[in-house]
Write the structure tokens for this entry.
Amino acid sequence: MNLDGSGVLLTGATGGIGQALTDALVAAGARVHAVGRDATRLGVLVARHGAAVVPIAADLSDEGGRARVVEAAARLRPSVLVLAHAQGAFGLFEEQTAERVRALLETNLVASALLVHALLPQLRTQPQAAVVAIGSTFGSLAYPGFAAYSASKFGLRGLIEGLAREHADAGLRFQYLSPRATRTAFNTPAVTALNRALKVAEDEPAAVAAQIVAAIRSGRQRLQLGWPEKLFAWLNGAWPGLIDRNLKSRLPLVRQYARS
């Protein structure tokens, strides 16, 4: 897909990967319709990129917020929807509140599904269009300490894969692109400390954004960034017992940092 001159509706635009994606998409010639909850942080993106960024202040977990995004999209006519918003929740599942679990699933999965559902009729009118979900390694490999988050990303991956198959004979493309750990404020200090203890590599947001934009251009349907994460995600599908044994050995560290 040629992004030069295209309109891209980007959710989570003020997040760590979202900001880097905004920069990379603008550099590719796209006009970014940037969705975020914080109008001040959206203003920073506008100040950096001028008319190439159109701010849309909205909370996607709220029905009214989604309606504002759909209304704006009807005016702006983007051809690409990038779902980059997410809520994290590191911790042992039984120690998280029901409200916390509900909010995470509402934001990461339900809001994404409802937004795609609302925008599908409009996107299908475009000669060439794409829905791009920014996933996670944990959408292919559920990890202890991230059970609810993994569930939300597994669900998002299933949604995108199912829609890709429903629209396989149309000009509307669906892509699930998965970064590994990325060095942003999305990671709490406890997550960062756990990554260091486990010697988990963290990518820079700009490098992740560059690979995502390249995948959007090429039309790649699935992408897992990083090694050995790519191998582990594949092994989890082929021989999950191997991953079970590997992760069992890491449980003491996960519990230590989850409760820190």
Remarks:
- The chain has a mean pLDDT of 96.
- The first strand starts at residue 7 and ends at 11.
- Residues 7-258 form a domain with the Rossmann fold fold (CATH 3.40.50.720).
- Strands lie at 7-11, 31-36, 53-57, 80-83, 129-134, 172-178, 222-224.
